[in-house]
Each structure stands twice: as structure tokens, then as C-alpha cells.
Amino acid sequence: MPNPSVGSANPSASLSSLWGYLLPALNHIVRFPTNSIEKAPAIDISYHMGIHTAVYNYFSAGSEAANARPKSSTVGSSDRDNGREASGTDLYEHLDKYYMDLARELLLGAPEDDTTLMQYIIPCYKRYSAGAHSVNRLLNYVNRHYVKRAVDEDRGWLTLSDIFDAVAKSVEEGDTREKIVKKLKERKVEELKKWGYEEGGSAESFAQAEQRFKTEFIEPLLAAPKMKVKKKRPGAASLRGDKAHLPKGRLARSVRELLEVQEMDLEERRHLAMELATTLRAVGIRNGHPLRMKLDKFLATGTS
Q: Is residue 50 a contact partner of residue 3, using CB atoms and an 8 Å limit?
């Protein structure tokens, strides 16, 4: 994709100008049809460099505006937005909404037939993930300037305050500051592992795009339909505790079709099960989730 002409306009002059300059590249990388679902289409090198320069200039202008403001002044929310005090938040939120809308569009395109749902999800996620990783490289300055700073300032989705109570119970009299900090970090890693994080590996499972794919695409498919509560007749048998009679989410039904019902070659079934298990792990579906356990059992034993 070639670099679009912007004439004398400055793409970094405002958020709307920057987003207008970025959007064609995002749509090309993430949405454009491609022969290989595991490789996103490229943009021209001049466009790539133009985006990097525009994002850098936008962030630099925000930092200069924040540094020029008197430190003793009280800044209101509108001033923070106009001066970009939390430089990068506005662009990050636009990206978040972009991925949210994209994931919802993909969900709307899912087939109604549960037996073909897995065959839709796997290539769908691969194409989505390939595009998201390409965008991540394209906007690496956002990661360096905003995302890393936000995590360092404990403004990620899992903050220290979320795990402080659990750690506080294990703090003993005489524990040094360093020891307490170590306990907090260990507890945070322990919590992340419940959601698929592997220590020493990549934390991409929790990246912005993957999180949105999980919340807007996977989780609705995992959710069981709501049951209408009917008044129980005297003497009627209770179904409480009989999970076989409870409604299942669409993805659970699709997995059941694959593992228990469909007449399909075992190797092909194993391949689909492995691909789905990888997808669920990548987007952060926690360890111990019933569907992940069902897939792991099938992959380990060949039975459901």
C-alpha cells in the first residue's frame, strides 16, 4: 500500500489528523484479503516511516506541552485532554476501540451452524493476530512511550492493588522492602499464569488486540444462553446439579461436536483441537477453564 498524499497537512497536528493518517494503514494490514492468513499485507516503506515520524512528533508535542505547564498549577480534565498530559492515552483508546469494533464484526460473521464454528474461528484468529502483530511493530513507539510507562506506573489491567491483600497476609514482621516487593512480583506472575502466561515467555496474550478478541469474540461464544426461570410445580423433578441438561455456549457445543459426534479423521480432529487450544491460551482464557481442560484431555489421551 503506497503512502497516501496529505498535501501540506501535518498528520501530527491533532489526534484526528493522526488517526486519519493511520486508519488506511490499519485497515490494509488487518482487514485486507490476503493469500496467507498468517502474514499480514505490507505497506510501502515510505508510509511506514511516515507513520513512525507522525506518531513520534505527536507524542513529542504532547510532552513539550506538559513540560511547559507550570508544575504548581491545578490541571482539570479538559486541560489534560487539550495538553495531552497523559500523552498516548488518547491514541491508545482509539486503537482499543478499533480492535473492539473489528472483533465484534468478526463475531457477527460467525456461521450459525455449530459444526463449522471451529473451522471459522481458527483462520479468523490467525488473520486477526497476524494483522495485530504487524500493527504492533508499526506502532512500536506507542509501546515504548506509552504502554511500557503505563505498566511501570502500575496502570495495567492487573495492578498491584489487585493482589495486595493476598500478599499482605503473608508479610511477616521484619520483612524488608525488597522482600515485600519480591513477594508482590511473584504473586503477580502467579496470577498471570492462571490466564495462560508462561514465565520467561512473551506476554502477548495480554496485549490490547488479543484482549479485545477475547472479550468481544471468544467470551460471547463461551457464554451459555440465559434460562428463563419457571415456577416449579409441586412434585416436579429437579434438574439442579444435572449439568448435562444445562444449556451450553456455542463454542462448547462446537467442541463437543468435534470430539464426540463428528465423523472425522482423528488426526484432523487433533489438529483442530490443538489449534483451538492454542487460540484460547493466546487470548488469555485462564488455565483450568472447562473447555481448555476438555481440549487438553483430548490431546493427551485421544478421548473426551
A: yes
Q: Among 50-64, 159-173, 207-221, 284-298, where is mean pLDDT lowest?
A: 159-173
Q: Phi/psi at 245 (nearest 5 deg)?
A: -95, -5
Return the percent helix, strand and coil in the chain, to nearest 5.
Answer: 65, 0, 35
Q: What pLDDT is recorded for position 228?
A: 62
CB 63 within 8 A of CB 145: no
Summarised one tens digit per residue, pLDDT across range 36-68 is 888 999 999 999 999 999 999 998 886 555 545
What's the burial of 177, exposed, middle or buried (CB within 10 Å: 0-12/13-18/19+)?
Answer: exposed
Among 150, 95, 128, smallest CA distance to 217 is for 128
Q: How confident is the prediction for the chain on average, in pLDDT?
A: 78
**Can you tell me the distance from the alpha carbon of 165 to that of 138, in angstroms, rounded to the nearest whole number?**
39
Give Cα separations from 28 to 59, 85, 109, 120, 208 (angstroms). Answer: 24, 31, 19, 21, 19
Distance of CA 81 to the CA centre of its chain: 25
Q: Greatest CA separation found in the chain?
A: 80
Distance, CA of 173 to CA of 21 (rounded, Å): 56
- What are phi and psi for residue 154, nearest 5 degrees? 65, 40
Residues composing the chain: 304
